[in-house]
Design goal:
Layout: E1 7-13, E2 30-31, E3 34-35, H1 36-45, E4 52-57, H2 62-69, E5 75-80, H3 85-98, E6 105-110, H4 118-127, E7 133-139, E8 146-147, E9 153-155, E10 163-172, H5 173-183, H6 194-201, E11 208-211, H7 222-234
Parallel strand pairs: 1-4, 1-6, 4-5, 7-11
Antiparallel strand pairs: 2-3, 6-10, 7-10, 8-9
Helix pairs in contact: 5-6
């Protein structure tokens, strides 16, 4: 890919997937003849706009992930993640910095979303040509309630303003690194995703939405596995 910046995908597979009830990280559960990890890896690896993929794996499973990654020549490395999702992102940023990729465009994707489409990846890469931070999301079809600790409804936000976050999330690597530098200096720092880190700690950086797809689902439990298997079988 001819570009002033390289495009690197970071595949986060650091969780153990306890809610899936599989007795192993859900990344190694099979869907349609391949592991969840391999489906997600292949989607990123095979996209013509991605120059390389860095896999961040759960502790104790790095060697198993290396076996899965062997047929994919554009896998840059398989490294060990941390206890929290944010720890795995930080590990990836440290790896990128040590390999002269501080200026890369980075797509951070959860391995638990094995059905990400080429269109979503392309739209994220295109958005990063003019943006510094983007998040994939789909409009909420449900009314969302906000309740207090006693279960009382305190707000009903307008549905037109509500989106359900997905991945990948895309960044200029230097922007994401700056956000984490500030965040890690905050003793109260808690993060669920990388866009929220940029949004909170770099308020001058706008995070723009890239339209996602319902098919880009997150596999969390046995029902999700069954739905994902059916989607792959039907090709829908």
């Amino acid at each position: 890919m001819e570009s002033a910046r390289r495009s690197v995908a970071v595949l986060l597979a650091g969780g153990i997937g306890a809610r899936a009830g599989l007795g192993m990280p859900k990344q190694f559960a099979e869907l349609h003849g391949r592991t969840i990890l391999e489906h997600a890896l292949a989607a990123l690896h095979d996209h013509p706009g991605i120059d390389g993929v860095l896999v961040v794996m759960a502790q104790g499973y790095v060697d198993a992930a290396r076996v899965v990654a062997t047929p994919y020549p554009r896998v840059l490395d398989v490294i060990e993640g941390g206890a929290e999702r944010s720890d795995s992102t930080v590990a990836a940023l440290q790896w990128l910095a040590s390999h002269d990729l501080r200026d890369a465009d980075v797509l951070v994707h959860d391995a638990a979303r094995p059905l990400v489409s080429p269109r979503i990846i392309s739209d994220c890469l295109a958005a990063l040509e003019t943006r510094s931070a983007v998040g994939v999301a789909v409009r909420s079809s449900d009314t969302i309630l906000r309740a207090d600790s006693d279960g009382r409804v305190v707000d009903v936000p307008p549905r037109a303003e509500l989106w359900r976050a997905q991945t990948p999330q895309g960044f200029r690597a230097g922007v994401l690194q700056r956000a984490y530098d500030v965040a890690l200096a905050d003793p109260a720092f808690v993060a669920t995703d990388d866009c929220s880190v940029v949004l909170r700690y770099l308020p001058d950086v706008a995070v723009h939405v890239v339209e996602g797809e319902d098919r880009n689902m997150k596999v969390t439990g046995p029902l999700d596995l069954a739905i994902a298997e059916r989607l792959l079988t039907d090709g829908s």
